[in-house]
Amino acid sequence: MPDNAVARARLTAPAASRLAQALSHPLRAQLLALLNERPASPNELARQVDERLENVAYHVRVLRDLGCIELVDTAQRRGAIEHYYRAIERSYLSDDEWAGMPAEVRQSLAGQWFEATAVDIMTALSAGTFTTRDDPHWSFTRVQLDEEAWTALHDKLQEVLDLAFELEAQSVSRSVESGRPLTPSRLAMAHYEGGRRGGS
Predict the structure, then answer these.
(1) Is 18 within a domain?
(2) Which of 23, 30, 69, 137 would bridge with 85, disulfide CB 3.0–4.6 Å?
(3) pTM value > 0.85
(4) Is residue 174 domain-resident?
(5) Which domain holds residue 21?
(6) CB of 66 closer than 8 Å to CB of 22
(7) Is residue 112 in a domain?
(8) Kind of pairing between the strands at 69-77 and 80-87
(9) Could you give the number of structural domains in the chain?
């Protein structure tokens, strides 16, 4: 299929399908997450993720064609024009979007999520920021739940995520008014069915 036909197909695909396509490649998912933090150019992103510019630029174009990012600025840099993009979709899937995905896509996305989360945590540990504050939170807990309790916990975690988005919006608004910098906070949540060791 020609490139322009591919782009048209992406643009007309349902939002859930487009986001699934965006997250189906680990580098693309990483770029979308970074562009959710701040606007950046492919050149800046390539340096940040230590990838070839051509490769990053390709995946940025895919994200643009999928409607996950938008152009917000251009600037002259060393005789060339740099294009700056920002995210307009979060790298987050709703329950309905997740339920509509094939099992192999779910498996791939879950693996990418855990890998990206582990890299981010190790980066914070190496930088010393993971333990700088007196009030971080991390926990790993095994619990036995029936279906009613599973659903209740799932819904409560969704409330926490919604609260995080709301608090971020409030923080940005206050920062614009006060000029005070924001703290790059990370929130990683995973609620899943545990595997059984030894096949039991």
Answers:
(1) yes
(2) 69
(3) no
(4) no
(5) 3-87
(6) yes
(7) no
(8) antiparallel
(9) 1
